[in-house]
What we know:
Elements: H1 2-31, H2 42-52, H3 62-79, H4 87-99, H5 103-106, H6 108-123, H7 128-213, H8 218-248, H9 254-258, H10 264-273, E1 277-282, H11 292-313, E2 318-325, E3 329-336, H12 352-363, E4 367-372, E5 378-385
Parallel strand pairs: 1-2
Antiparallel strand pairs: 2-3, 3-5, 4-5
Amino acid sequence: xxxxxxxxxxxxxxxxxxxxxxxxxxxxxxxxxxxxxxxxxxxxxxxxxxxxxxxxxxxxxxxxxxxxxxxxxxxxxxxxxxxxxxxxxxxxxxxxxxxxxxxxxxxxxxxxxxxxxxxxxxxxxxxxxxxxxxxxxxxxxxxxxxxxxxxxxxxxxxxxxxxxxxxxxxxxxxxxxxxxxxxxxxxxxxxxxxxxxxxxxxxxxxxxxxxxxxxxxxxxxxxxxxxxxxxxxxxxxxxxxxxxxxxxxxxxxxxxxxxxxxxxxxxxxxxxxxxxxxxxxxxxxxxxxxxxxxxxxxxxxxxxxxxxxxxxxxxxxxxxxxxxxxxxxxxxxxxxxxxxxxxxxxxxxxxxxxxxxxxxxxxxxxxxxxxxxxxxxxxxxxxxxxxxx
Length: 389
């Protein structure tokens, strides 16, 4: 609708300009009483139409319209019909040419007519004051038409630039929103992976132990089943918190807010109950303060590393956890001897745990290195900053 309205207004403006030029020519031809002027006839009116008709094309072909109008005007003066100020006819095409950026190619037309008029005045001995009074208004009309075209062109260019900037901002906003949604999905996927993966690995190992001991050691079977129940309840609590956060639109699941190094003793107890022997000779001082995101990432790295030991090295393996804090960083190192048999083979899609750990660590500005040891076993080493990045 806006486009149709603009086209309609443009056609009305074209018609008004053409009728205005025709009126000027008609008035000059009809009322002209100059000495020696050619008598009015059909050719004079035809030249008037020739001066007005090209203006209909001034928006698409401004230079061609300007030069055609100039040519018709030149013939009109050359034949000797009663004259009128050329600026009245040239103003519209000059404005259109300047508006579309053709300033210098348009200059010869008004310059020619003004110079020719001044030469005629000098040859006829017209006083300088009279010449100035005749030509200064015409110069003013030409200058105003071109300045107005340049001003409108500048305003349109500025408006177009503003629109482009707004469009770019909108695209950036949409891209940022999409990126945030993707990051949130990945974060929730990591939370679910860490919570459920750790629980399932522990439950699997405990179940295997219970099956082996079901006919021999009822007390150890009871301990294994108790550990399974405890692990399952903890996993369900965290999973329920994640789902509630999704439902309520919370910034972070409840279980995620609780996941930190203060839960390390419970984690060591859980994996110990599954049969994994874990030593933790280096612990953090009780007064050690970590940013919440760093604390959370550190706990998840420990949880995933010990879960991987359970899954791939087996409950007969031994693991060592070391935590070292300096004024600027926190170092986490989990090493296993790799002597146990794998409790469960890695299924399709395995290996995402390491990628998830690396993403967590890098998200807070740290680095992670993981790989086999020369003497056997596996080591995960994470360097985390003491300040959030």
